Fold this protein.
Amino acid sequence: MRVLVTGRAGYIGSHMVLMLSSQGHDVVVLDDLSSGHADAVLNGQLVVGGLEDTTLLDYLFSEQPFDGVMHFASFIQVGESVHKPAKYYRNNFTNTLNLLDAMVKHGVKNFIFSSTAAIFEESDKPIQEAHPKQPMNPYGRSKWMVEQVLQDYGHAYGLKSVCLRYFNAAGADPEARVGERHDPESHLIPLLLQVASGRRRSMQIFGRDYPTPDGTCIRDYIHILDLCEAHLLALAQLLDGGDSDAYNLGNGNGFSVQEVVDMVRKVTGHPVPVVDNLRRAGDATRLIADSTLARKKLGWVPAYADLHNIVSDAWRWEKTIARL
Ligand code: UFG
């Protein structure tokens, strides 16, 4: 199949393109390289441009037929979104509308959307798809707005979509060809690994006063390859005539920030100093997925569910870029 991938120079997109290409699919990538890395683009045809450029979108869709679109291009920092909401609504919402409108105009029907656990109201229990939507930050709200638009576009224009609500994507390609590399880095596991590799002196823990056993926030970490696998299954489902749907993707196991720190110390063998700080704006206490539906309807089975595995693959990547 021929797939348009947006945001491929970023963390998830770069792994997705590797997976699609290794399975023999044709991939065209649209990325403005504003937050990704050109050298993360290892396969496929790269078109450098942004989703605000509707002329470019028109040209791209009129030039060749696509079986589907996987849309990764977005801003993803929860904390930043609280302070710069316009940036998030403009890119994550308005630019996505441009993409959807171009798809509708050119008759491309199948859309896989990178959504997030941040759309949900907090919960003490694993979160199912029907759980109330109550985003705690503009990032989550921008994603939930798109999900709602997709329902309307489905009814009105026949655009089919699968929304994949990622919990915490982590890990890296086991061969360390690509990995997580935000600039500046803001995510827990890569930050801790930068401390372990000596690229950073310490890491701040945002809040030890949450109502959890050790006082730090709890998240459900999911290996990037398991996440990408779910995208392939979701697109196959749509191409087989399946209906639009939404799935929560996580392992169903919550780890506190402190437990992740301990795991990084264990995997790397480095002391990894941390400094306690105040809570970060927009953070939920606990986000754990119930992915029963994805397992049942997509046949999705995570192959790298173990946190040790996830951190080990991320560590191999960190050692590659830190040249250790
Ligand atoms: N954390 C720290 N110190 C840091 C960075 C993070 O203590 O320097 C903590 C955060 O407060 C949070 C946890 O580590 O409790 C995980 O934070 P990340 O920034 O790694 O990830 P988030 O949970 O904020 O967000 C990620 C993705 C979102 C997604 C969300 C869903 O970036 O796209 O997971 O759980 F929506």
Q: What stands out?
A: The CA atoms of residues 35 and 183 lie 7 Å apart. The longest helix spans residues 85-106. The pocket of UFG is lined by residues 76, 78, 116-118, 167-168, 186-188, 191, 203-206, 217, 219, 257, 280, 283, 287 (CB under 6 Å). The chain is about 40% helix and 20% strand.
